[in-house]
């Protein structure tokens, strides 16, 4: 059963690609820095829920748009109240409207404060109160109970209380399973995690509508179901928790949203607290934040609505520690800033943020910082590490923070999740020294030609070498603290007009290349080779891709069977342009017979048909045996129409239809003709037997 919606250039390109991969790696690792809802979400909401002709679409889509706007604090810029309220009132005024439509009409009228008469709501309440007694599925309970809750919140004087609330509660509870999941109906044996969220939200509505208090034992049984449901929760390595549906094809976002909305709704109405591990609540919040900004309106609503439920729940309100920027520049003397807010970006209660330790990511070395309290800036609501110690140099680090609430009473309301690990990149301008490029004699190792380089700026060196010599490139990189720096990528490229080759420079900053080993790779092509050096790292602010100059190579003549370079287009982008037109000369048509001969052949093909008609006349064919009774006459007519249709189909095949289309149509007509033909022949046989017996 489908889940119902909720109500609640070769070498240069290669070098550039490698540099982009370095940057991409930093983005992937920064995924554990979960940012709360911001103005970017508000801008996205205005785009995703843009009204068309003064309407957001269906009542369900309208309610999701309006709820999202309310949660994010967005003023409704477009006046949709008039047309939307008219649609909602029309649905509420019809006694034949489905319960689901009534539910969303009530929700929209509540959000827009539509003018709905009290007498009309009383009639709707009376109708909805009768649904649970005959409900056969969880959806029936869900929309009817949800509608009554909306009426209660809109006009409290309307009688929406359930006299048999305990019986309804037990009927819904009967759909629960031993693993904490629920079925959509008693006839459907398949259990669902998504349905569990719907059931919890429905039970919360029953509790709020009960004229008599629901027994505590029944509520405790549901709390136990919640604990069992959370035994099946799944986890990512970054500390995010989520629920995944095993049936129905519902995605993890919709499933997790369903559980969160059901959990928070039940916790807000049931007596006593629902005790769940703090890391589960914080992990669910981080899961919704890790999605970023969904591009689908339904997913966007599920995200912000779930975060709103968590922020306003009686379970625990999660606090999110986030870094506005995970890259700190030593060159610019940036300060490390930390902000602690709720998931929707609201300010946190009074607290302190401690930097427990910081260490180089992927290293077993000791911590470079330990036990340091950050300074709170009340103006920007940041916790700041003012100065980085000299023990922190350029590189990737893992900072471990801890939130300490100043008021012990806040610990009963908020959940901090213990220690939080965040990757931080310390970047700087790397100092480049002693850069030079030389041509060496292979045998003696003596320097034939040596040129100084000014890396990071313009260079245009000119070298000459033969296949018996070597090329040496050397440079030294150092951090602002004077430590040697090893870049993630250092690439040297030699490019001829017909060939090129890429070399990886070692982390030592030196590269020796014997030209003898490159003769075949360069296809024995002598001439000018441009030299290009690319050095990049995620923490190197002055990464570059620079042309150094050129080297004139004198290579030996190519042997007879040596491979040749592929032909290079004049324009490297010409291969993406329009292709040459392909011309094809068709075979000259065969000589056709004369028109008179063709017409004579056509007359010969029609002779059998004419003979058939003459034979029918000689046999005295007539319609005396045509059935007179209405039903047999109808079958007789359909039989002849079917025969005629088959003949017409043959004619169409001859004129325009292809074989496959004809066979499909013939198959359908054949079955039809066989059926009606059998009926009329059976009638004729029965009539004939009666005449003989008479």
From TrEMBL:
Residues 433-553 form the Ribophorin II third domain. Pathway: Protein modification; protein glycosylation. The chain crosses the membrane at residues 597-621, 633-653, 659-681. It comes from the Eukaryota. Residues 320-426 form the Ribophorin II second domain. It is found in: Endoplasmic reticulum membrane. The keyword Endoplasmic reticulum applies. It is a multi-pass membrane protein. It holds the Pfam family Ribophorin_II_2nd. Residues 38-311 form the Ribophorin II N-terminal domain. Residues 586-686 form the Ribophorin II C-terminal domain. Keywords: Endoplasmic reticulum, Membrane, Signal, Transmembrane, Transmembrane helix. The keyword Magnesium does not apply. InterPro entries: Ribophorin_II_2nd, Ribophorin_II_3rd, Ribophorin_II_C, Ribophorin_II_N, Swp1, Terpenoid_cyclase/PrenylTrfase. Belongs to the SWP1 family. Subunit of the oligosaccharyl transferase (OST) complex that catalyzes the initial transfer of a defined glycan (Glc(3)Man(9)GlcNAc(2) in eukaryotes) from the lipid carrier dolichol-pyrophosphate to an asparagine residue within an Asn-X-Ser/Thr consensus motif in nascent polypeptide chains, the first step in protein N-glycosylation. N-glycosylation occurs cotranslationally and the complex associates with the Sec61 complex at the channel-forming translocon complex that mediates protein translocation across the endoplasmic reticulum (ER). All subunits are required for a maximal enzyme activity. Component of the oligosaccharyltransferase (OST) complex. This is Dolichyl-diphosphooligosaccharide--protein glycosyltransferase subunit 2. It comes from Punica granatum (Pomegranate).
């Amino acid at each position: 059963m489908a889940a119902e919606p909720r109500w609640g250039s070769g070498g240069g390109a290669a070098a550039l690609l490698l540099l982009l991969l370095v940057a991409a790696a930093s983005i992937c690792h920064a995924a554990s820095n979960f940012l709360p809802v911001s103005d970017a979400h508000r801008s996205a909401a205005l785009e995703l829920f843009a009204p068309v002709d003064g309407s957001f679409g269906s009542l369900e889509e309208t309610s999701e748009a309006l709820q999202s706007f309310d949660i994010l604090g967005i003023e409704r810029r477009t006046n949709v109240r008039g047309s939307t309220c008219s649609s909602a009132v029309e649905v509420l005024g019809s006694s034949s409207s489905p319960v689901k439509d009534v539910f969303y009409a009530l929700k929209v009228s509540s959000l827009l404060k539509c003018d709905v008469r009290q007498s009309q709501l009383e009639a709707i309440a009376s109708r909805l109160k009768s649904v649970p007694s005959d409900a056969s599925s969880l959806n029936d309970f869900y929309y009817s109970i949800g509608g009554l809750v909306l009426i209660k919140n809109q006009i409290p004087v309307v009688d929406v209380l359930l006299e048999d609330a305990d019986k309804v509660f037990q009927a819904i509870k009967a759909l629960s399973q031993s693993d904490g999941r629920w079925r959509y109906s008693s006839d459907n044996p398949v259990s669902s995690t998504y349905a569990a969220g719907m059931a919890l939200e429905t039970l919360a509505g029953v509790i709020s509508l009960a004229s008599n208090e629901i027994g505590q034992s029944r509520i405790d049984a549901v709390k136990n179901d919640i604990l069992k449901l959370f035994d099946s929760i799944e986890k990512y390595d970054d500390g995010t928790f989520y629920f995944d549906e095993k049936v129905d094809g519902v995605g993890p976002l919709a499933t997790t949203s369903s559980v969160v909305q059901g959990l928070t709704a039940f916790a807000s109405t049931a007596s006593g607290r629902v005790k769940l591990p703090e890391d589960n609540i914080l992990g669910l919040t981080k899961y919704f934040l890790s999605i970023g900004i969904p591009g689908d309106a339904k997913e966007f609503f599920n995200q912000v609505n779930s975060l709103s439920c968590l922020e306003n729940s009686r379970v625990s309100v999660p606090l999110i520690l986030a870094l506005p920027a995970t890259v700190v520049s030593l060159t610019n003397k940036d300060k490390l800033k930390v902000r602690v807010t709720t998931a929707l970006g609201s300010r946190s209660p009074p607290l302190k943020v401690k930097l427990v330790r910081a260490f180089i990511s992927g290293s077993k070395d000791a911590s470079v910082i330990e036990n340091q309290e950050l300074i709170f800036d009340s103006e920007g609501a940041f916790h700041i590490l003012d100065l980085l110690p000299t023990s922190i140099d350029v590189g990737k680090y893992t900072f471990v923070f801890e939130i300490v609430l100043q008021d012990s009473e806040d610990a009963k309301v908020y959940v901090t999740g213990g220690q939080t690990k965040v990757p931080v990149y310390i970047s700087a301008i790397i100092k480049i020294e002693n850069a030079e490029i030389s041509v060496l004699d292979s045998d003696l190792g003596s320097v034939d030609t040596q040129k100084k380089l000014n890396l990071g700026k313009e260079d245009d060196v000119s070298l000459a070498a033969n296949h018996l010599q070597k090329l040496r490139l050397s440079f030294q990189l150092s951090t602002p603290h004077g430590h040697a720096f090893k870049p993630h990528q250092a690439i040297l490229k030699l490019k001829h007009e017909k060939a090129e080759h890429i070399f990886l420079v070692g982390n030592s900053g030196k590269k020796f290349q014997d030209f003898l080993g490159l003769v075949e790779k360069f296809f024995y092509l002598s001439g000018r080779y441009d030299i290009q050096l690319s050095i990049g790292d995620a923490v190197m602010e002055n990464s570059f891709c620079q042309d150094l100059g050129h080297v004139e190579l004198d290579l030996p003549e190519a042997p007879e069977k040596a491979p040749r370079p592929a032909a290079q287009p004049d324009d490297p982008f010409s291969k993406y342009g329009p292709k040459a037109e392909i011309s094809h000369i068709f075979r000259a048509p065969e000589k056709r017979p004369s028109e008179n001969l063709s017409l004579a052949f056509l007359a010969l093909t029609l002779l059998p048909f004419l003979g058939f008609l003459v034979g029918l006349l000689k046999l005295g064919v007539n319609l005396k045996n045509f059935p007179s009774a209405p039903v047999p006459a109808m079958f007789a007519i359909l039989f002849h129409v079917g025969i005629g249709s088959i003949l017409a189909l043959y004619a169409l095949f001859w004129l325009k239809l292809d074989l496959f289309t004809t066979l499909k149509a013939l198959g359908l007509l054949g079955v039809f003709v066989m059926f009606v033909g059998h009926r009329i022949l059976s009638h004729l046989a029965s009539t004939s037997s009666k005449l003989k017996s008479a």
